[in-house]
Amino acid sequence: MPIKIPQQLPAREILEKENIFIMDEDRAKQQDIRPLNILILNLMPEKEKTETQLLRLLGNTPLQVNVNFLRTATHESKNTSRYHLEQFYKTYADVKDRKFDGMIITGAPIEHLNFEDVNYWEELMTIMKWTTTNVTSTLHICWGAQAALYYHYGIGKFPLPQKCSGVFTHKVFDRKEKLLRGFDDLFFAPHSRYTDVSIDDIHRCQQLKLLSASEEAGPFIIGTKDGKQFMITGHLEYSAETLAEEYQRDQSKGLDINIPVNYFPNDNPKEKPINKWRSHAHLLFSNWLNYYVYQETPYEWD
Question: DSSP of 253-301, one letter per residue?
Fold first, then answer.
């Protein structure tokens, strides 16, 4: 089944070349089935890249998905054109009276800031509170995961001695967890962040359960026991080349940065990186859409 996106969205051409099943709005209106309505709060600076990464995963399931993009009204993006934002993005004021079957809140490269110092923190808190009543299940990624743990459960982040960047091995802790159905006992996933959260704090919170972690990269997938919230501290949505682009960007800024761990063949940045996590990325998003969105959301929101 397809993912439904605006006809002129730049990601459309990329996805069509990758044979991802997409559908424009006109064709979708002719179908009688009810699509899942997914809202993506895109906090990443290069929004078009993140759109493509997430749509690639949402578009590879047996479900028709209707995607809306959300931006913050209290922060002006410097890396995405105003035209793109006005054409494809809504603000909280546009959606606050609606219900959504699922929502994704992305990361943002602002880990060096305290949450309260982020210029859109008040707005983000309003949105996160709204998700508890207006969204069936919300998926939080990287900094978005840390923000959710802090806002909803009072679990803070702490700085790492150096950036956690690379592709790490993770263990599955709960074989019965539907989100991880079909996962290997050990699987790879990329991380890219300067901060982390405490496993002990997660274990102490009765509403949360740790579903997967890495000995090197720490807690990875955290979920609430009711399945309404999932926090993923890494980036399963990343393309094969994303960590390389970030590494080159940091180098050009003169930052003292290490080569991403277990990423470049032979640890040689001149060699093309290999994607080791693609299948688990598709599986996680498919499981989330099926078991925690499609199976749980009402056909008609009251």
Answer: TT---PPPBTTSGGG-TTSPP--SSHHHHHHHHHHIIIIIIITTS-SS-
User: What class, spelled out in words, does domain 3-158+195-238+285-294 have in CATH?
Assistant: alpha beta
State the average pLDDT for the chain. 91
Active site residue 122: no
Q: Using only C-alpha atoms, what is the Rg of the chain?
A: 18
pTM recorded for the entire structure: 0.88
30-79 pLDDT tens trace: 545 678 999 999 999 999 999 999 999 998 887 889 999 999 998 888 87
Residue 237 appears among annotated catalytic residues: yes
pLDDT in tens, 140-175: 999 999 999 999 999 999 999 999 999 999 999 988
Q: Which one from 140, 237, 246, 280 is the annotated catalytic residue? A: 237
Task: Check if the beta carbon of residue 146 is closer than 8 Å to that of residue 80.
Answer: no
Task: Please identify which of the residues 48, 51, 140, 142 carries the catalytic annotation.
Answer: 142
Domain boundary assignment for the chain: 3-158+195-238+285-294
